[in-house]
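Reference record
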Amino acid sequence: MARKRVTMQDIADACGLSRNTVSKIFNERGTVSEATRKKITKAAQELGYFQFLEEKTSKPGTHSQNIALLTHSKPMNHNFGSSFIINFTDQLCRAGYTLKMYEISTEELTQKKLPPHLMLENTVGILGIELFDRDYLHMICGLGLPTIFVDGYAHVNSSLLCCDLISMENIASIIALTERLIASGAKRIGFVGDINHCNSFYERWIGFCTALGSAGLPLDHSLCILAKDEEPYGDVDWLFARLEEMPSIPDAFVCANDFLAIHLMAALKKKGLSIPADVMVTGFDGSPESAVVEPPLTTVQIPSADIGRLAADILLDRIQNPDRPFRFTYVKTIPVWRDSIR
């Protein structure tokens, strides 16, 4: 008996939600809470929705070979990753390929090894996401398979990698955020995040520094929180302690993503400061949480669904045309102005 096709309505029924709410997650339209997103994603996985996407083909006689998704951090755990993967997978399956996901362990990352169950002879292309280790990326490129990475290690765009890369545009949007803060009266501005965590964080730092320089404002490291990504940025008490170490609280903070911004806002409130009256805060990602935090967070919207579809197109083109020049593709992002700035 043929397996019943899992639909969005099936997922909605399992969650006790409307089909429209489920559609918002998979089509990246509208805003839902993080708890709802996780509930929908979990139900979709349990019902086999993603497995169906991986296994279906739309054209008779097309390829039945695999695309390997390599990641060090499960991409379905955050808003960008879930929307990206759904649309990337759908695009590949329409071309007759199957996506197989492999989570790279810390040991495999350190030793530059592939997962033992990854069969290269059945793999025609590779997608790397949430992989920011320089040597590991170079090892994957050395396999000689069509490969595309989403983002990469800091300064990846200055390396001669034999692969395609795709990323959201970071510099222009951060410049726009910082210039808006300056126009709103901020003269002392700090940055929050590990600028070497990944290339996107590094580019957001570059945009921040560029905007300060263009306005003739100094870069004051004592107003920044630039600790390594391994530090507990999600711990409000830890962030509170970093604020206490500053000579004074700046007029505004530019944060490398929404996760950092939201937790920083909690630490600022714990310090008795009002946002945006005492200090302004911006994020980056356009996460659902950014719209519901109090006050709503000024952020940058990433078109993750479009990036997923475009990444699939680039990889499919690379498979068909392996000798074409490698490409580094940026996809435009859009600032979203909310009440966390004046």
